[in-house]
Amino acid sequence: MKGILENFYAKIGITSELPCVILFGMAFMFVFAGFDTQAYVTETALQSISKIYPDRMSTHAGYYGMCITYFFFTLMTFFTPLVVSYLTAKWTMFLASVFYTIFMLTFMLVNSLIFYMASALMGIAAALIWTGHGVYMKEITASGNESRNSGLHWSINFGSLIFGGILLLIIFREAGEVETLSVEIIRYIFGGLSVFTILSNILFALLPNYSKRCVEKRVTYSTTIGKSIRLFCDAKTYLLAVSFLFMGLSLSFYITIYPSCLFFSKSIIGSCFISYMSNRVLNFGYLPTMLIALPLYFTAFIAIYLAFPFDANLKPTTQPTLTLWLVIGMLICMGDSCWNTLRTAVLTKMYGRENSPQSIATCASFFYSAVLNLHIQILIQALVLLAGSICFAIAWMIHLREIKIVASTKENISIANKNALKY
């Protein structure tokens, strides 16, 4: 079977870097066509179940479920390197995609206990798939192609929201405008989304396994912890962690408080632009990308602060106009595409993968989303964005200085060796 797959990969050219990145992006596109899209309707679906069956579901179960998800995500990140070392990156992502499918199917028989257990499983799956993602991207990426591959991967991945948005558009057009979803419609939605995650199961299984090319040996858990401790001794880790805090806050904001799934086409445009420019401008996928994201986010934050009522996230509102709502959503999505592309490229270049600060912030944000009003949340995000941008710039300059020092040291050693040979 292994030989058949290798011959198949060779015939269609998938063993080369670029086709592999495309298939990798498609696998993520389908898994998140299911997961990201459900995040836009889960709160509404759970509130509907709460109204129909008050004894089965809490009114704010959606917020608390996502809080549980990112709590387990945070815990699991300490164990996922060991899992990846034994299963390999490919099969770790495959296992995680199966967990995503299980999560979708639990909505066929949803109640509080099942939903919270499934939310915990989702946290484990998220830690597995993103650690596997970082390792696999590192395995298939040649030196110098980090920004290009990252931008291409994210542009394909963001296509997931278009597929999910089309599915929801079809379902809601048939259902009409209703404030409460029926159990039958909820099952149609999550049954349809589970089809996407099942397709991702197939694509992850078909990915070439590049782990055999890596020289790293399987390590014990104590060795993994030792590497993590050494990582925490690096000043750049703490600087980048502040940037990930903002990404965590932003994630919870745009998938539960400000949903705009049909406008993720702008994320595709942003990621394609970064991928294109990275091949033409040195280091474009790093500091320049961050400088593009800053005005996009700040413009969106100011517009939200001025246009939305302060309690818009806590109760229904008819403000602002649909056009303004969509324009703000476009800005947020383009900024998010810049940060995601930036994160993958930087971590692929500097480290393996570290998502704990992001998942901690997301967990906290989902918890306080049911308490703090919209304007306070916008202020928090703006402050963390500013701090994260400054910290990232400092971390990147430290990294460039380290590269110059290493290059200079190698050059001096080379010159010294040549002089020694003369004598």
TrEMBL record:
Its main location: membrane. It is found in: Membrane. The keyword Disulfide bond does not apply. Keywords: Membrane, Transmembrane, Transmembrane helix. The chain crosses the membrane at residues 21-41, 61-84, 91-108, 114-131, 152-173, 185-207, 237-257, 286-310, 322-342, 378-398. It holds the Pfam family UNC-93. It comes from the Eukaryota. It is a multi-pass membrane protein. GO terms for cellular component: membrane. Belongs to the unc-93 family. This is DUF2955 domain-containing protein. It comes from Thelazia callipaeda. The lineage of its organism: Eukaryota, Metazoa, Ecdysozoa, Nematoda, Chromadorea.
